[in-house]
Design goal:
The chain contains 15 helices and ten strands. By secondary structure, the protein is an alpha/beta fold. Among the domains are: about 130 residues, no CATH class; about 70 residues, Winged helix-like DNA-binding domain superfamily/Winged helix DNA-binding domain (Arc Repressor Mutant, subunit A, Orthogonal Bundle), CATH 1.10.10.10. Strand 7 and strand 8 form a beta hairpin. Helix 9 packs across helix 13.
Length: about 325
């Protein structure tokens, strides 16, 4: 069982590709973990800490109805997670798009979502058939965001921003192969025939598909709570790949001589780069001032260097820093 999605790419698609961060999609992924639709993986401790809040929210009709729509390997209603517009989109703006969904569109997508599933209980069906179901779902997602994800968003956003910087740099400098290199074992760039194409292997039933970017580029959407690579190839979305962000499980420090040499926190900072001081503080639960002191020490030792991007300074490992960690940023 399984099938393959092929997305044909050309040189112009590199320049047209872009990245986006979505607090709303992250909220949906978090709910999938808490509902059991997706495995928690390294986020198991985090999920356990949110379980009681989720169980309480599940008593609300909107949450029970929303969770009923969660499917793997099949269509999920598009209007609950509209495509993000950039890296700094606000949850309020995304929820406004959900609330503006025409009732006919919401009901059509829900019907498509439910196709092939057992009939939901009457009380859930009543919620799904409400003329204001989009408003109900938006209110439900807002509550889930506020009570489940918002307290951890500074840390999650830092992880996502770091992934965007890293992957966008690879795409712009080295092209598709470098950008896709560690995205997932199920995805790779095939260049042995013209045109080159991204190949994504799916592990559920389906028929092979071929799509062409045609100069529109690809939208990359990293996720902390997302557990696998997903392709958005519906008309409601620009062509997009959602994928687990690099470094979700940032190690507190390597348990080797490096941590003993420079200290656990500075070892962890070296592994967490590229990042800004503010991002490092969120990632590693430090004060901004404390993170800045460690960064200054590492910079003074020639292990990292900084590049100003807007108002912030983005820090990278130098060649010496790379040599110290063995150029294995994902090692524990």
């Amino acid at each position: 069982m399984g099938w393959t999605i092929r997305i044909e790419v050309g040189p112009q698609d590199v320049m047209a590709s872009r990245f986006a961060i979505s607090p709303l999609i992250e909220t949906l992924h978090a709910l999938r973990i808490l509902s059991g639709s997706h495995e928690a993986g390294v986020l198991q401790p985090w999920a356990a800490s949110k379980r009681a809040v989720y169980v309480r929210l599940l008593r609300e009709p909107g949450m029970a109805a929303l969770v009923t729509l969660f499917r793997r390997g099949a269509y999920n209603a598009d209007f609950t997670g509209p495509p993000p517009s950039g890296v700094n989109v606000a949850i309020e703006d995304e929820l406004a798009v959900v609330r503006a969904t025409p009732p006919a569109q919401a009901h059509d997508e829900i019907a498509r979502n439910l196709a092939g599933l057992p009939a939901p209980p009457p009380e859930i069906r009543a919620t799904l058939e409400r003329p204001d179901v989009a408003q109900v779902f938006a209110d439900t997602l807002e509550a889930a965001w506020r009570e489940i994800l918002a307290p951890d968003w500074p840390r999650f956003k830092a992880i996502l921003e770091r992934d965007v910087v890293r992957r966008a740099g690879r795409l712009a400098t080295y092209g598709w192969s470098a950008a896709l290199e560690d995205l997932s074992p199920r995805i790779r760039l095939r260049t042995e025939r013209d045109p080159a194409h991204i190949e994504l292997r799916m592990d559920h039933a389906g028929s092979d598909e071929t799509h062409r970017l045609g100069g529109r580029g690809l939208l990359f959407v990293p996720s902390v709570c997302g557990t696998g690579v997903g392709a958005y190839l519906e008309d409601a979305w620009p062509y997009a790949l959602a994928y687990p962000a690099w470094g979700v499980a940032v190690p507190p420090a390597r348990r080797d001589g490096l941590a003993r040499l420079i200290g656990k926190t500075r070892s962890a900072i070296l592994h967490a780069l590229p990042a800004t001081t503010t991002q490092l503080a969120a990632l590693l639960t430090l004060s901004v001032g404390g993170a800045g002191d460690h960064v200054a020490a590492l910079r003074g030792a020639g292990l990292i260097s900084g590049t100003r991007t807007g108002r912030a300074v983005l820090y990278h490992r130098t060649a010496l820093g790379e040599a110290l960690i063995g150029d294995r940023p994902d090692d524990a």
